[in-house]
Structures are given as C-alpha cells and as structure tokens.
C-alpha cells in the first residue's frame, strides 16, 4: 500500500514543485505512530535498509555518469567532497555548540558532540541530488551538473569517516589530540585509497564477467551486475577500504566501458534505484515520531538557515577558490544546491545505536527536521535558482527513443526539416545525403513513416539519420543549414 500511495503521491507532488523525496518521507511519517499507527523504532534495521539502498543508488549514479563529462571537473569535485565536508563540519559544529548552549541549555553539547552532529549533516545527499537533477530536465552551464553529481557521489566517505571517528572518541572517552588527528588523517587517506582501488578493480572485473556471461536470458545480466555491486561494497569493507566510494567508482567504471546489453542493465537499475529510494525514505519516515519534531523546531530552523546561507556557501567558496574557471554565479549556485537527504538521517542512526552518545534521539530528530527543511527550500528551487542566476541551457529533445548497440561503429542524429532544407525539392531522394548516410525513420506528428526515395517531406518532420561517424552527420547538417 505504501509503495502504491508513494508513486501516486510522488506524481501529484511533482506537478506542484514538491520534491518527490519529501513526499516519500511525508508518507512514511503519516503511516507511523502519529498517523496510521505503524510502529517502527528499530534503528539498526533502518541503517541496514539505508546501507543497501545507498549501495544501489551510488552504483547507479556512477553507471549513469559519463566520465568524459566529469574528467574536466575532477579537481573541484573532489575538493568539494573532502575539504568542503571538513569546512562545513567545522563551521556548523561551532554554531551548534554556541546555539545549544544559549537556546537549550538542557541539551548543551560538548565540542565532540557538536562536531558529531555537524559531521552527520556535512555531506550532500547523492540520492537527492541525482533524483532532482535528473528529473528537472534542465541543462546547466559551466559543467555544473557533473560537478554536483561527482561531489554528492563521493563526499559520503569523508562524512562517514568523521562520524565513525567522533562516535569512537565519545565511546572511548578519548580527547581529540594532535596525534589522534594525524592518525585519523592517515586512516582517511588509506580508506579512500583502498576504496578507490577496489572499486576500480571490481568494476573492471564486473565488465569482464558480464561480457563473458553468454546467457540466453537477458534479464539475468542486471542481476549479475547487482551481485558485483554488492561484492564491491562488502569486499572493500572487508579489506578496510571505504565501501561507499568503492561502489560509486565501480559503477563509474562499468558505465564507461563497452558492456553487453548496457541499455537493459541501465533501464533495470533506473527502476530498481527508484524502488530502493522509496523504501529507504519510507523507512526513515516511519522511524521518526512527528510530534517530537515540535520540540526542536526553532533550533532546527536556525541551524537549517545557518547551513543553507552560511556554512554551505562558505565551504563552497573556500573549496573552489583555487579554480578560476567558475563564475561568481556558478559558485553561488553550487553553494545553494547543498541538498541534505537520506544519508544524514542514516548517519544519525549510528548515533542512535551507540549507548554512549547522549541525547542521540534529539540529534536524530534535529537531523530529520533539517533534512526536510533542506529538501523543501533547496530541493524545490534547484531549477528556479539556476534560471534566476542565468545558468540554465536548453537540452536537445529527442523524438526517437533509439540507441545503437556499442559494438556498432555508427552514429545517429535527428534532423528536423525546415523550409530551407527543401530548396532542392521535397522528396527524400532530393536531399543529397552523403553516400554513407541513410534515413531510417521519419516522425510526422504522432505518426512514424518508414522512408523510401520518393517519400514526400513536410516542414516539421523529424528524420532519423544514421552514418558511419557523427562528424559526417554534423557536416551534412551544417551544409543544409547554410
């Protein structure tokens, strides 16, 4: 029932500009103890569901990412994913320490607890960013989309390590010393290095295994990829690497290699990703008791505004300072799209499961409230803010849902017929195509026509062309447009 309602409500909410993920969280809250009465308070189960879901979401995000697009922005993306998280944690931690001391003395956190809460909320959420950017259907200038996707896909490891480190400090009663910071930095580099290497190797092995599978049932190929995805996550953790980084890089490798039935695999993962997103957000919505959010509303609003307007922009401007290619408007936009989502809530369950973290339930509720605030304010204005800053660009609309298999060394292009294209006649044979170029389908309104030499072309028709190279098609279109 919850899945059924979520899909219908998500479709309705998107019409009114409400982020779909907020709808899923809301349905989970409505179904919980303060609504329909479903009792769910198992933080360990929620953390496990979130871990599996993030594994699929990160792998799918890498699978859909073109490495050619992110290669030019590797530097800024990785700096945002590391230094950006540290700066956000430091600024937010100081604010939390002082705010709680003044507003709610009963919940006044020490410096370690303040930094833990800040670290939990320090990373942008890959599920939210991937979902909102991919459904906005709007292009972004200055290569901002790959920057944001790279950052959100690779900054969870840094936040995860900070959270685990700070919980360990609280549980053992140690003080944060210079020696601890140095050893933690070394562990961070080791985990990220092992995670990146393991993800790359397992991604390469996944490609080899899938291409050699030789199975008569094409739907077993995505299942094999899922198995390899879980291998990347679990084996990397076994050898003390960062599993979240490993699955993202494994997905990136698989998505950018020649792969049997790649489109079938990508389509399967697209639907599967939406399924785990819905389940994850429903679960996290069930875990919270909405009436408890009333007690933290004002500190939550203040902290949320600080993170949106101060901590995130400051972290972005400082992180991107060495990279002169980004305009002031581009930096401001990256600062705005600091979406919080499922990842901070899942990290907050780590605190719930630790008996040593004082006021862990208060922390969880605060994180949940700020996530809702972020998705409502930032998530609903991702496209509007880009338009206001003049950073949007039109994406080409495709009339044909058609892709060639990777093993076919040819290119396709859609040509929309204009009046100038018919100067030499309106029959297809009079278009003077290059020798190695063919028209394979024509779309006229809602009808599709298989072309012949004497087929009459109309203004507004879309012709699907195929040739041995895209450059040949581009030259032909330039000649027509002249």
Provide an overview of this structure.
The protein is mainly alpha-helical. 63% of the residues lie in helices and 5% in strands. It contains 20 helices and six strands. The protein has a four-stranded antiparallel sheet, with helices on one face. Strand 4 and strand 5 form a beta hairpin. The longest helix has 34 residues. The radius of gyration is 25 Å and the shape is elongated. The termini are far apart. The mean pLDDT is 89.
* Strand order across the largest sheet: 3-6-4-5
Helix percent band? 55-70%
Radius of gyration: 25 Å
The global form is elongated
What percentage of the residues does DSSP assign to strands (E)?
5-15%
Structure summary, number of beta strands: 6
Q: Unreliable runs, pLDDT <50, ≥5 residues?
A: none
Q: Averaged pLDDT, please? A: 89
Topology pattern, helix = H, strand = E: HHHHHHHEHHHHHHHHHHHHEEEEEH
What structural class results from the helix and strand content? mainly alpha
For the biggest sheet, the summary is: 4 strands, antiparallel
Number of helices: 20
- How far apart the termini lie comes to 58 Å
